[in-house]
Amino acid sequence: MPHSKAVRFMNITEFKTVTENRTVSIGYKCDCCGKFISGDMPDNWHEFEGHHESWGNDSIDSYKYYQVCSPKCYLKMLHEAIEHFEEYSTAIINGYSVEFLRELLKYCDIDE
């Protein structure tokens, strides 16, 4: 029985300068107070999401993302997220149920 030889192709390369247009992040803006910071998101900022898992295609479209610059802005956006998702029994915000977060916020004071 003859042995088959694997065919190998030679890869020929050339160094070229390639330019492309693409969207790049230039910074972050707090969804609550509007503060802008250029560059990477600082460690003291927080990003969280809310969504629901109710039946239908709108559960995929329900994802909402929040970026906040301080604990005060976090609490304010948490209030907003709870109001937005409270009609859904399957809603999850920052990994917690709406009911749990509503109870948690009873212990937090924020200045409006």
What does this structure look like?
There is one protein chain. The protein is of the alpha+beta class. The chain has a domain at 28-105. 24% of the residues lie in helices and 19% in strands. It contains 3 helices and 6 strands; from the N terminus they run βββαβαββα. The chain has helices at residues 58-61, 71-85, 98-105, and strands spanning 27-29, 36-38, 46-51, 64-68, 92-93, 96-97. The protein has a 4-stranded antiparallel β-sheet with strand order 4-3-5-6. Strand 5 (92-93) and strand 6 form a beta hairpin. Helix 2 crosses helix 3 (98-105). The protein starts with 26 loop residues before the first strand and ends in a 7-residue tail after the last helix. The model has no long low-confidence stretch (mean pLDDT 84).
Summarize this, please?
The chain is α+β, with helices and mostly antiparallel strands.
Q: Mean pLDDT, as a whole number? A: 84
Q: What portion of residues is helical?
A: 10-25%
H/E topology pattern? EEEHEHEEH
Summing up helix and strand content along with how strands pair, one would put the structural category as alpha+beta
Name the strands of the widest sheet in spatial order: 4-3-5-6
- The general outline is elongated
Strand content: 15-25%
Give the terminus-to-terminus CA distance.
Answer: 85 Å
Could you tell me the radius of gyration in angstroms? 24 Å
Number of helices, counting only DSSP H or I runs of 4 residues or more: 3
Oligomeric state of the chains in view: single chain
Number of strands: 6
Residue windows where pLDDT falls under 50 for at least 5 positions? none
- Tell me the major beta sheet: 4 strands, antiparallel
